[in-house]
Specification:
2 domains, N_methyl_site, alpha+beta
């Protein structure tokens, strides 16, 4: 026969402790997920900005080697500071990034 004192299953205290642990864990894990997704979006946007800046750099560098630069870029500000007839410094800037390149002929 089975003893009445011995029960199979969880006691009310064990269930309440598990619920308390879960109620602490769930909001913190959701916050961590939200933070990770926001960081991923920022990194992706920065990578796209840098990629656009590198493409503009290649275009400007090729034109500068040929003698004249005529680039129209709406999103990226750029400036060429001529050092001498064979060298110049190209500065590309967006709201959050600045890149400088040495151009040579």
């Amino acid at each position: 026969m089975r003893s009445l004192n011995k029960s199979s299953g969880f006691s009310l205290i064990e269930v309440l402790v598990a619920a308390a642990i879960f109620s602490i864990w769930l909001p913190s894990s959701l916050y961590a997920l939200q933070l990770g997704l926001a960081t991923q979006l920022k990194v992706q946007q920065r990578a796209e900005q840098v990629e656009a800046m590198m493409a503009l750099h290649a275009d400007i560098a090729a034109q500068w080697r040929n003698g004249a630069v005529t680039v129209d870029s709406h999103d990226i500000d750029w400036q060429i500071d001529v050092i001498d007839e064979h060298r110049a410094v190209l500065t590309l800037s967006t709201g959050s990034h600045n890149l400088r390149f040495l151009l040579t002929r």
